[in-house]
Amino acid sequence: MQALGIVFSDIHEWDVGALTTNRTVAAIPFAGRYWLIDFVLSNMINSGVHKVGVITKSNYQPLMEHIGSGKDWDLSRKNGGIAVLPPYGEDSRTGLYRGRLDALTRIVNYISNSPQEFVVMSDCDMICNINYKNVIDFHVKSGADITAVYNEHYIDKESASHSVLYNLSEDENNPGRITEVYLNPWYVEGGTFKVSMNTWVMRKDYMLNMIQNAIATGKTHFARDILLAEVNNIKIMGYEHKGYCAHINSVDNYFKYNMEMLDNIKRNELFYKTGRNIYTKVRDSEPARYGENANVKNSLVADACVIDGTVENSVIFRGVKISKNSVVKNCIVMQDGIIGSDCNLEWLIADKGVVITDNKKLTADKEYLMYITKNKRI
Questions:
Q1: Which of 58, 85, 246, 364 could lock onto 347 through a cystine, CB 3.0 to 4.6 A?
Q2: What is the C-alpha separation between 10 and 62, in angstroms, rounded?
Q3: What is the mean pLDDT of residues 156-181?
Q4: Any idea of the CA torsion for 181, 40, 266, 372, to the nearest 10 degrees?
Q5: Whole-model pTM?
Q6: What are the φ/ψ torsions at residue 217 (nearest 5 degrees)?
Q7: DSSP alpha helices (H): ranges in 126-276?
Q8: Are 373 and 357 in contact (CB under 8 A)?
Q9: Strands 310-312 and 164-168
């Protein structure tokens, strides 16, 4: 069964604040060398989805350069392959789209001209390693109109307010059917919930009918106008993903889940599934270089880094330079950052290209992280 992949590159840009000032959600760096879009593209190709459309909105030039022809994900193909779809429609309407459903109406010709029978639709804010083939098989066997992928785990009150939560039927004659949808429930306290992974499967013909109805009625939001409004009228089934799942829906969670990559068990669960590698753009950089006084503990250090200081419990991206007598603890330093000598950094996120000159002390704490914007010099 062939499927078309539809990826939304920046539906949740407001949730992650400063991280998307100059980039899309899809282009947020993660775990030293990856971008968020790498995970969904890898999941697509590993699941046999060979045609993928990436819907953009703003700040998407770096994303286009990262994706290129798609060859790093085996998506450079004569038939199928990857397409970056602009934010403006194929009809006379102007302005940026207002939600997933509105975005789909802008690419209706791309969808209708695709020969695939099924559609896998996903955002970029969920980090996981999932086989979409299993979801499609479940969708067919259950006779669902829409299958929604979820992961059951604990979330706090803040995360709940940025999530879609599901309740499933306990009726033994209809197990797994979603009976209630909670859209960004700010009133929910922390607890264990069935949390949407912002991934859905449906037949292409069903999606096209949904899009035509949206055009006729002015509906714009998939979660609000379809999942929430139609939960009692259509058959929405829940498929549980039981593997590792990280929802990047705040700056705090971005920091938290990067730090989880220092845990061997969680890192292996995400990156080392048999036959399901996570791919990214190959840069052919030289290996990291460590000086005589380098001291690195429990950290991820990417290629092309030069480490002459102390690094502990940190994620260091490609091309970062940390000078002598500097101490970096509990930090994320993104690509091409430069840390001068005799610096002391703790509990901060330094965005791409940040330069911190000599003899600077920048320390925060776990509850109130410090964030330094892209290309800032301190």
A1: 364
A2: 13
A3: 90
A4: -90
A5: 0.94
A6: -105, -10
A7: 132-142, 157-160, 204-217, 222, 251-260, 264-271
A8: no
A9: unpaired
Q: Give the model's pLDDT for residue 190.
A: 87
Report CA-CA distances (Å) from 154 to 151, 157, 194, 247, 368.
Answer: 10, 10, 9, 12, 21
Over residues 310-330, the pLDDT tens digits come to 999 999 999 999 999 999 999
CATH 3.90.550.10 domain range(s) in the chain: 3-271
Give the number of C-alpha atoms closer than 13 A to the C-alpha of residue 343, restricted to the C-beta side: 23
**The pLDDT of residue 369:** 95
Cβ–Cβ < 8 Å for 83, 110: yes
Cα distance between residue 366 and residue 346, in whole Å: 9
Instruction: Please tell me the predicted confidence (pLDDT) of residue 91.
Output: 53
Contacts of 205 (CB under 8 A, 6+ apart): none
289-372 folds as UDP N-Acetylglucosamine Acyltransferase; domain 1 (2.160.10)
User: What's domain 3-271's architecture?
Assistant: Alpha-Beta Complex (3.90)
pLDDT of residue 95: 61
